[in-house]
Design goal:
CATH class: Alpha Beta
Order of helices and strands: HEEHEHHEHEEEEEHHEEEEE
Number of domains: 1
Number of helices: 7
CATH architecture: 4-Layer Sandwich
Distance between the termini: 29 Å
Shape: globular
Structural class: alpha/beta
Length: 293
């Protein structure tokens, strides 16, 4: 099965959500939440992530996570990830209770396809404040993709992780997981980058981006993905967008969909004149109206 077939299969199995003038979605991808060790790249940006989620929660956005939310290739224990990033999971629970949380799996958290895995780790979390278990995301499903169906009959928007562009990150993901877990994780500590990763290998990154952009154009679809960790704003001639990631040293990037516009945004550390530090939201590039496609 080629990448076009894998992309089309994800589209066919996707969850449908509405897209109209009132829709407000925030898209993040590639959090790679870890266990707090040296390879937990999310840890340093978690306060930005929490600040962003509180901002969007208060403003009525629905949170869509486009895969690789948890780093389950380098780490075997989802339990330890939940314990380490308890505040993040508490925020996810808040969105879920309001029916404003939908999640996609990526190659690094492909195990979330398994319903038993989800029941075991996403039904509850332990609340330190009340010393008891609270509901997390009971009965949640992780999808291969999400389609935002345009209420006005124009182009729909397809959201997916983007790992389908490479056979080793999709069909043979278990082989790649083994290599990352037992080989590349240790070599990266010595400064050797993982050559199998589209996020760390520029040749693979560009090949993946070309494949995703070609699929979007060929299928007359606006496509928003993650996976490569490189934020991208599409255009009328190339309707491919990328959220970027939540683990870049300079901050986290994502995409807002509001007022029928797609906007690439960045959250980073800012300093006021009185030397106080704050989480700063900024727009990257120009917003793109959905009605232009």
């Amino acid at each position: 099965m080629g990448y076009e077939s894998r992309m089309s299969k994800s589209f066919e199995d996707a969850l449908n959500l509405p897209l109209d003038c009132r829709s407000k979605y925030i898209l993040f991808s590639d959090c790679h939440r870890g266990t707090g060790r040296a390879n937990d790249n999310f840890l340093k940006n978690e306060f930005l992530y929490l600040a962003a989620l509180r901002y969007y929660y208060q403003r009525g956005f629905t949170y869509l996570e486009l895969g690789d939310g948890d780093e389950l290739w380098e780490n075997r224990s989802m339990k330890k990830i939940k314990e380490m990033h308890k505040h993040s999971f508490e925020m996810l629970a808040e969105f879920y209770r309001k029916k404003r949380l939908y999640m996609i799996y990526g190659n690094h958290d492909m195990v979330k396809k398994n319903e038993d895995f989800c029941r075991k780790f996403f039904d509850t979390y332990y609340c330190d404040k009340h010393l008891c278990k609270n509901p997390l995301c009971p009965d949640i499903c992780f999808y291969p993709g999400i389609v935002l169906r345009d209420a006005f009959g124009k182009r729909d928007i397809f959201l997916t992780h983007g790992h389908q562009a490479g056979i080793m990150n999709s069909t043979f993901w278990k082989v790649n997981r083994f290599l990352v877990r037992y080989l590349w994780k240790n070599l990266e500590l010595l400064g050797v980058p993982d050559p199998t990763s589209a996020a760390k290998n520029n040749t693979k990154k560009e090949k993946t981006e070309r494949a995703l952009a070609e699929w979007a154009k060929k299928n007359s679809m606006v496509l928003i993905a993650g996976h490569t960790h490189r934020p991208m704003a599409g255009s009328q001639t190339s309707p491919y967008f990328n959220t970027g990631s939540c683990i870049h040293p300079a901050g986290i990037t994502g995409i807002e969909i509001k007022n029928r516009c797609i906007t690439l945004i960045k959250w980073s550390l800012g300093t006021r004149y009185d030397q106080t530090v704050f989480a700063r939201r900024e727009v990257l590039g120009d917003s793109m109206s959905i009605d232009l496609f």
